[in-house]
Amino acid sequence: MTTSVLSDLKIRCSKAIAAAFGEEYAKYDPAVAPSKDAKFGDYQCNAALGLTKKLKQKPQDVAAQIIANLHADGSINEIFEAPTIAGAGFINLKLKLSYLEMQLAKMQKSDRLAIATVDQPDRIIVDFSSPNIAKEMHVGHLRSTIIGDSIARILEFQGHEVLRLNHVGDWGTQFGMLITYLREVYPDALTKADAIAIGDLVELYRKAKKRFDEDEAFKETSRAAVVELQAGESSAKQAWLLLCEQSRREFQKIYDVLNIQVQERGESFYNAYLADVVTDLRETGLLQEDQGALCVFLEGFSNKDGQPLPLIIQKTDGGYNYATTDLAALRYRIREDRATRIIYVTDIGQSGHFTQVFQVARRANWIPETVQTTHVPFGLVMGDDGKKFKTRSGDTVSLKSLLEEAIARARADIETRNPEASEEFKQDVAEAVGLGAVKYADLSQNRTSNYIFSFDKMLALQGNTAPYMLYAYVRVKGIGRKGEIDFASLNVDAVRLTTEPEIILAKHLLQFAEAIDAVAEELFPNRLCQYLFELSQKFNQFFEQCPVLQAEERVSRLSLCDITAKTLKLGLNLLGIRVLERM
Ligand code: ARG
User: Fold this and answer.
1) Ligand 1 pocket mutation, candidates 129, 142, 167, criterion most atoms within 8 A of CB
2) pLDDT tens string 437-494
3) Which of 346, 348, 381, 399 to mutate to test the pocket of ligand 1 (most atoms within 8 A of CB)?
4) CA 214, CA 216: separation in Å to the nearest integer?
């Protein structure tokens, strides 16, 4: 098992720099990157130019010393041809053919394509999906679910210990009004399970909210109901449990369809820790009273009059906010869960919220230097028309119907292509293609942009889509079937690479580990989609130009087919997409 060539080279260059110029340079950025142009080799180390000023030496001389020290570890000669220096001290490194050939043979024999797990696993929390009880899960939550799941899969693949947390909105004022309203109009709903459907619950929530906004007495009672609930009063608590249970089951249906694992740990979980947040912030001197509310004044945020903006920790009536719960959650995740990396996947509209929460937590000294907190924001889902995503009648789109439609459309397609196939086969293909299309369409965009939801585009056979990728996989597997090949018993010590398209494909295959590292670090799954898309293109070029089954190099070329198929399968799996053997 190996790590990626890129990460290995970074370590080698760092060591060489430290060995050449002293330990004080051990942390110096070795500026190692894949080359943009093949004429500069496959990788470059561009550290020399930056070092010249510090060392007062010519960049070419600096580069020569780095190279001399790179050779201190002889194993580099197995990986790269002799490094060359270009221009202002740029070190170019070209992979050795023999290394490529050997690595490919290792990849072919391994289900994880010979990619090693990390030496020191981190404990990572991915906070994603996180819909709100009594409200319907909407497309924003769908994005969070798909992106969060993919990030979690990639980190798990790397060997990290990942805690997937569903921070559902199951606490707070919405329950006060809902319980009060239901007590009035539909008391049965509060004592009997399933007395109302979730769709009705959403409607009831709307009505309750309207009452809350219009009726002062109702407002009072609702507030009292929240206090009752938070104090654990039994009838309010029971009503709350029923409401949560009902929503939970609806959410679970979506997770089942999408094959998503996520552990529910909602806002209510942190109720017991809210008071500690207040105490801690008071002790660190951050807490201030402002018109009866307890708050922390934020650095770098001000209101229109230029006054520092407060983050309200506890309201005048004693209630707590969304931010307070997130502070309690962050504190808990660091202290109790011992997480060293905490990732939050929500819409971009919450960026301010997370910046504020992280800031207060940092100033309260809750975040040790070894812990990284990251908000992973994403853009809005828009309709075909470029406007906010709505149904024709103007309602918000229900996720269930959206997924059903994707499957139905994929089903209609297979009906026309393959009417003779069995019912079971058609349904299986329709589900894999329909759901894969929804996921891939979301993941293949740069997540920070708004994304246009279009069934036509996501189900198209051409372009960077799930059907295209799934077909690419089926086609590669088809080659094996045609030649009646048992890939598992192809036993090669080295894959011989004799032509340009083979070498191009081989180098790209070897970069899979780098694509995974990049997503794990930067948390942009579209990087992996792009990698897989390019892989299928490079494979096509190879397949057009190099005969496989009839060739003298048959075994080698079949290995390339097999590694490509394995990479597509694993790559799509890391995106939460299931491949099909035939379609
Ligand atoms: N429930 C929130 C919403 O629907 C998302 C929660 C995200 N996670 C968090 N720790 N704040 O917008």
Assistant:
1) 167
2) 999 999 999 999 998 999 999 999 999 999 999 999 999 999 999 999 999 888 788 8
3) 346
4) 7
CA of 286 to the centre of ligand 1 (A): 25
Residue carrying structure tokens 């004429």: 39
- Cα dihedral 386, 388, 390, 393, rounded to 10, equals -80
Ligand 1 centroid distance, CA of 301 (Å): 21
- The protein residue whose alpha carbon is closest to atom 5 in ligand 1 is 130
Residue whose CA is at the smallest distance from ligand 1 atom 11: 326
Q: How confident is the model at residue 45 (pLDDT cuts 50, 70, 90)?
A: very high
Q: Tokens 């006054």 — which residue?
A: 307
The CATH fold assigned to 123-167+266-381 is Rossmann fold (3.40.50)
Tell me the pLDDT band of 194, cut-offs 50, 70 and 90: confident
Q: For 46, which DSSP code?
A: -
Around ligand 1, the residues with Cβ closer than 6 Å are 127, 130-132, 167, 169, 326, 329, 344, 346
In this prediction, residue 450 carries a pLDDT of 93
Sign (positive or negative) of CA dihedral 447, 452, 456, 460 = negative
Q: Is the pLDDT of residue 146 over 90?
A: yes
Contacts of 232 (CB under 8 A, 6+ apart): none
172 pLDDT exceeds 80?
A: no
Q: Whose CA is nearest to atom 9 of ligand 1?
A: 167
CA 161 to ligand 1 center in whole angstroms:
22
Residue 277 pLDDT? 97
Q: 438-574 has which fold? A: Isoleucyl-tRNA Synthetase; Domain 1 (1.10.730)
267 CA to middle of ligand 1, Å? Answer: 9
Strand order in the sheet with 293-302: 287-290, 293-302, 308-314
- φ and ψ of 300, to 5 deg: 80, 5
- pTM of whole model > 0.90? yes
Question: Cβ neighbours of residue 111 under 8 Å, at least 6 residues apart?
Answer: 566, 570
Q: What separation in angstroms does the CA of 455 have from each of 150, 399, 451?
A: 21, 14, 12
pLDDT in the model for residue 1: 63
Give the rounded percent of residues in the chain with a pLDDT score beyond 70: 99
Q: Atom 6 (ligand 1): residue with closest C-alpha?
A: 130
Candidate from 128, 130, 164, 265 with most ligand 1 atoms within 8 A of CB, to mutate:
130
Q: How open is the CA angle 568-571-577, to the nearest 5 degrees?
A: 95
Query: Ligand 1 centroid vs 530 CA: distance in angstroms?
Result: 29
CA of 41 to the centre of ligand 1 (A): 46
CB 549 within 8 A of CB 479: yes
**Would you say 535 and 527 are in contact if contact means Cβ atoms under 8 Å apart?**
no
Q: What is the DSSP letter of 576?
A: T
Q: Which CATH class is domain 5-95?
A: alpha beta
For the chain, domain boundaries: 5-95, 123-167+266-381, 173-259, 438-574
CB-based contact 438:574 (threshold 8 Å): no
How many Å lie between the centroid of ligand 1 and the Cα of residue 431?
Answer: 29
Ligand 1 centroid–CA 347 distance in Å is 9
Lowest pLDDT segment from 146-150, 245-249, 500-504: 245-249
